[in-house]
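Hey L., structure's done. Input below.
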Amino acid sequence: MEAIIAGAIALVVGIIAGKFLFAKNTTKKVEDAEQQAKKIVSDAQITAENLKKEKLLEAKEKFVQQKAEHDKEVLEKNRRVNDGEARIKQKEQGINQKLENLDKQAKDNDTIKENLTRQIEVVNLKRTELEKHQEEHIRRLEKIAALTAEEARSQLIESLRQETQTRALAMQQEIIDDAFA
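Output:
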């Protein structure tokens, strides 16, 4: 019995020692596992932070690139708008210049028209005066010559006819003389 009691005590001591050793091993393994878990979590956090920083940096770079492209497009559009405005201003200035020239030409034409109208009036007055003087002159000539205007015209035509015949004969004679010379 003593052997049984010693066996039972050895069994109990063995179980307690095993439990104690197992618990110590288990505690050590749990502590190691916890440290590993903490290290994995810490590494994961560091990796996550690094990944987050990389993604933020990539996002910032992409934003800066897109902003630069957008700014470039805006500048190009502004340049085109400014060019268009400059062309419009040039055309506007050209049109204004042409309008000024047309206004000046219209004023000049009005001045010329007024001058011509006055000159026509003066010419018409002088023509009327001349016709009056001519009629008066014809009346005086008729009195002096004691001929009517028709009679004077007939005599003038007859005189011109005779003079023309004389000249024609003289020219014929010259042609004949030149032909025989």
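The chain has two helices and no strands. The radius of gyration is 67 Å.

-- N.
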